[in-house]
Amino acid sequence: MQLTKQHIADANGNLKGHQADYYYLSQKLIDQGVDVDALVQKVADFQVAIPSWALGAGGTRFGRFSFHGEPGNLEQKIGDVGILHALTQTAGAVSLHIPWDTPTDYAAVKQIADQNGIVFDAINSNTFQDQPGTKHSYKHGSLANSDEAIRAQAVAHNNEVVRIGEKLGSKTLTIWLADGTSFPGQRSFQKALSQTEKSCKEIYGELPQDWSLLIEYKPYEPNFYSTVIMDWGTSFMLANACGDRAYTLVDLGHHLPNSNIEQVVATLMSKGKLGGFHFNDSKYGDDDLTVGSIKPYALFLIFNELVYGMANNPQNPDLAWMIDASHNIKDPLEDLLQSLEAIQEAYAKALLIDQKALEAAQLNHDVVKCQEILQGAYRTDVRPLLQKARLNGGGALNPIEAYRSLKVREGLIGERGKHTVATGL
Ligand code: RM4
Ligand code: MN
Ligand code: MN
Asked: What EC number(s) does its UniProt record assign (predicted)?
């Protein structure tokens, strides 16, 4: 099922209401000195990768309720990303997870991606599960394992993932490790960390010259006592040990409650070491909920630092943006549409912050004014700007309404059947 511009224009119908909203908001912003066209263009240029594992229903430890019409293979998954991109014009990339989504027919996969305007962003390895046919088990760790043969197998897997990515045009490898311990005394912290550093350096050493390495961190789960790469500091240290093209990746759900993620972002960007970003939202742990569904103001504050860093830290690379959410009870595509909208909304609001006025208020120690500036931007309803950015690219006025009125899920069920199950967690 491919959505054409005509399908979407039909679903959009009359644009008069939008035009009136856009006119009103843009006049107000122009009066405030905002370059509205430039802002709309920035929003339109912001592309977020969809992970191949997020297109089916996610499970929990207690069960998994699959969703009808799930993509049954990689080609269908890319087709789903194409639907998201056609509607939103902001999901022009896919992030594959190997071996869940190892291509069997590269030419076919590339052709479907091309047809849908999708590129291959960061590619993810998986040494947190055992795969059929592998000699050694990762039950007691992979890159951190005390057994050299197991570490070698995990390093070889990462090298293989890079070779797969090279065939698709990807330029970035993301490593997330489950390695850690569930009980005190189970393993030496120091040895686990130094083995991990050695393994990461081996992987980095085999990377093509135009590739980068992203190192993700997470404080706990699946291990409940310790995780080897537990926080941004550990990831930063490993990235520095590897070299210039190794960076830290921040996943919003991978922090202990109440961590100041915006400050982590600012610190890493000032050092030129923030390479990737995984969006989701959470209440308690790595909940992988829809972006902006729980803490939208925190997301806005994080975007404030990202926007500042993108403008002021030329030493920091372009970031690999990805949604890393799981959809246990919603239609995965509708959930992703909600996440994409929330990301753009937070980004557009952060772009509205008057950085000069904020700096002046900071230098005057005018704490009240600083808060007024941030909250003034946050309270602006920027949705007409997002609509404008989408419409300029041929996208939907309201992606979820269009998805429903075009009966996309019904179409997918018709093509794939009710009981397909996507690979992933
Ligand atoms: C992890 C982490 C990784 C993702 C896996 C599926 O918690 O967020 O980024 O690859 O889940
Ligand atoms: Mn992640
Ligand atoms: Mn996670």
From this structure: 5.3.1.-, 5.3.1.14
Sequence spans of domains, the chain: 46-348
CA distance 177 to 221: 10
pLDDT score for 40: 98
Task: Give tens-digit pLDDT for 289-316.
Answer: 999 999 999 999 999 999 999 999 999 9
Q: What are the CA-CA distances from residue 141 to residues 115, 138, 151 (Å)?
A: 40, 5, 8
* pLDDT above 80 (res 254): yes
Among the CATH numbers 3.40.50.620, 3.100.10.10, 3.20.20.150, 3.50.50.60, which is that of 46-348? 3.20.20.150
* pLDDT value at residue 2: 87
Residue 19 is predicted with a pLDDT of: 98
Of all protein residues, the one whose alpha carbon is nearest to atom 5 of ligand 1 is 176
For residue 216, give both structure tokens: 């993700």
Q: How far is CA 237 from CA 194, 244, 253, 265, in A?
A: 11, 12, 21, 15
Q: Against a cut of 0.90, is the pTM above it?
A: yes
* Pairing between β-strand 226-227 and β-strand 212-216 as defined by DSSP bridges: unpaired
Number of residues in the chain: 425
Tokens (6 digits) for 141: 């760790």
